[in-house]
């Protein structure tokens, strides 16, 4: 159970940084980079490359696999040569990306090059040369690898002498809790929860949803002193299904009482993920899609026409940033459309997609979109479904609310804040 | 940050060895805060990462090791790791510094020192490492202990016998009882790494240690949790109750946020279920496993892909896991193709009478999509659905006919291919649609679909009025056709002749084709078959007719399922590369050791029946498998030619009989090589599609080699499944 190392590629497929592959031939990482680049080149769509690529070894007896992900403009590769869980590789890659984000904010080839020494320190601390992850909790990492901003500040103000880490008054790894560092102090003790829910749905031609699921997650930003032990009770907890939690949450307690009992890490972390299943009488409960799309698509020779009407099913809330997209098929050359309510539309000739963009969709209004498109293909084959994305601020499908936050172990009373946002990602077939 | 940002990028300039050396020397004086040294070292490290050889600076850089600044130490160590092995003759210069750092006040330095030493596996370093490591394994600081634990695995890789003699394995074992969970987890990781080596000591857990490890689960990091859970596969429960208790403690891990933890927990549960007796608990576990698997599907496409490949295996062994969740696998049109194909396969496997209508509606939707590969698979799946779920067959056939009306060439071809199988599954029921098929002959240009329609014409020549005309047209290009089509034409011509022996055209036709096959074609398969038919027809046409048109065994979808023993074994690799490729890892990973279910009094009797011993790698192949002649039929080998071959004794085995015979002495070698050729058609028994396999009769191992049927487990439909590419190696198994 160990991965071989980690490689970061820029968007042209060149390596920016890579961990030490000391126990491998020096060509080994190159082999993987080449394998990925040629797989990308051979595939019509970049997203269609298998996430686990088989890599033929230099000599035939050492095959290996290359797990890769793309985040932003960068690609992260994780060569694997033993019988390892690819999810393990993917989980590590994701953790590493999260750490980089935590350290540098926006990630680009430039940022990583500018801070290469920190990137290399992170490689060293998160992954040993045998491929075992070492320290990946941001709380513990910050003690041994100083984030760039803090590092420069400390260096310029204090003028470091002696060991860099001694600037932090606490000793690294002194904390008995692996995810929380010891001796944290804040003037204002506050904790914020962001509840983000995403509706994933497929709606059939008849307007009935074939599948509709709400996935939710609770992101938290914790600024609490000492070692606070929290007990969070929420309304509607019964309808949260399939939960998965940050390791800090006491799982037994949740299983018994449906309350969250935990000692939070310091700073930002994801507290939990869940699926929302509305408690209704019927056995199969599905979340409702909050809009109706009436579609009329006709395809002729070398083109076609589109006629859409969108209306919201919500009673008070406004849907924002609604995008309705349609892939017009190979050979589509242009479109000419008319949208009501000053909504805008665009046609992207590169991806051959038509996008109807509505800044706000208020309840009880009909938004219409009419137009035609042209194509060089004799029988254009547009995709069979519209993809609709939207967001609803200050709203949650599950209507989850924090009822109470009890704190033990410390004497102060924390300020708690909660905010909800909902997103939607609906495929509407015509 | 951006203000400071640009400054490091300037280090990425190609530097000269001489310059660096001079700068390092200059840095030795008037360098109070070591900033000069730091700058030079940064430049050197930047050059290393650009791939420039900095090894000539070895002696100069090593001198910086005494600097009491962790940042500098780290860079020097990085340099040492890169060039240590190259400069083995100079390493003795570094040893004193290493030893000093191993006894530093700061635990970070101590850990860094032993870690770096373990990365440089030269005799001189290893020599001094062994002593230091012994101390560090008992260090009072957990950070040092956990680093030391991993270093033992490195030491073992460098010199196994030394590590064993030095008692390091025992020391690791003692660390399993450490108070710090991270130390425990790393000790487990190190022991597992050692245990996975073919020459390593065997790492097994007993009940006490396994329980102790479980208590450490609560406090370990996510990676530690994975190591510990994975190591539980090394524990063989002796009593049902042990397995059950352990499973109950593992279940909570299904709620972990890390997807790898979840999948490893599922692997452990699947393993423990082999040793359980309590049906209620097993059902409960199955019910608990479903939701986390579904949750994995809300993650990125990469995680989805791994999850889907594993779900495919899991639902074959434990069909109840996601029984009611087929909707979760409905595809979105902008899913990546690899996700779509995997979902499609799972949808087919989850299809039952209750959800067949929904599934069919989805499949029809997919059949109108843009992506050719996906559409083809969707059309095939409609046909497979018809074969699998009898009550849905009517509507599936109607759907296929609708698709044929679209006249899209690749849709029609796929439809024809599956309809041929449908005819065989439901003889005498749907032949009415043959005329519709014949109308679209001109759209067929691929060998497989052509062969399929030719088979249909030959088989039902008595019902097609203009069969002889059609055959005459089709044979027009006989000599240019690929072998697959030629074989089909040959057999169809013979069948046509037998049906309509009196007609002059058919007589002329069969004569023409036989003459071509025997005289003008180089392919020995074709020629041999030509001769065989010719002789049969010459000696006794009536008997020939009986043989060629003999009743065919109805096809089923059973061969879609993997052999149970192989499945049990693959599930031990849940989540690993093996489960992605659906191959046992020792067949494609060098030095991988096979895993096998271990026998114990608690092992479920049906699992024991199909027990596959861990195979030793690189065994010579037991027999050479020659693919039978004739048009390739996905679900049973050689249907047309099969009728010729199968008559000589080796009739498909009756499942229940065979399992009694085999059940007593496990994998029966006697089934041997002859069964090998027929491995797919031999498993004709009815499996219990609902409920766990534990309930039903277990299929007899089709052959001595449990993986012989593996490739056919997907009935040839998974042409696009991911798999290692070095086929020559894989085809031998």
From TrEMBL, chain A:
Cellular localization per UniProt: Endomembrane system
The keyword Protein transport is annotated on this UniProt entry: yes
A Pfam short name: Adap_comp_sub
Location (main, coarse): membrane
Family label: Belongs to the adaptor complexes medium subunit family.
Keywords linked to the UniProt accession: Membrane, Protein transport, Transport
GO BP annotations listed: intracellular protein transport; vesicle-mediated transport
Organism this protein belongs to: Lentinus tigrinus ALCF2SS1-6
GO cellular component, one term: clathrin adaptor complex
Keyword Secreted attached: no
Protein name: Clathrin adaptor mu subunit
Domain MHD: 188-430
PANTHER family membership: AP COMPLEX SUBUNIT MU
Record CDD domains: AP-3_Mu3_Cterm, AP3_Mu_N
Entry-linked InterPro entries: Adaptor_comp_med_subunit, AP2_Mu_C_sf, Clathrin_mu, Clathrin_mu_CS, Longin-like_dom_sf, MHD
TrEMBL record, chain B:
Gene Ontology CC annotation, any one: membrane coat
Compartments reported by the entry: Endomembrane system
Source organism, top-level taxon: Eukaryota
Compositional bias segments (type: Polar residues): 643-659, 677-689
GO BP terms, alphabetized: intracellular protein transport; vesicle-mediated transport
GO molecular function terms noted in the UniProt entry: clathrin binding
Compositionally biased intervals (Low complexity): 661-675
Signal peptide per UniProt: none
Region (Disordered), start-end ranges: 613-733
Described function: Adaptins are components of the adaptor complexes which link clathrin to receptors in coated vesicles. Clathrin-associated protein complexes are believed to interact with the cytoplasmic tails of membrane proteins, leading to their selection and concentration.
UniProt cross-references to PANTHER family, sorted A to Z: ADAPTOR COMPLEX SUBUNIT BETA FAMILY MEMBER
Record-stated family: Belongs to the adaptor complexes large subunit family.
Protein name: AP complex subunit beta
Organism: Lentinus tigrinus ALCF2SS1-6
Upper lineage: Eukaryota, Fungi, Dikarya, Basidiomycota, Agaricomycotina
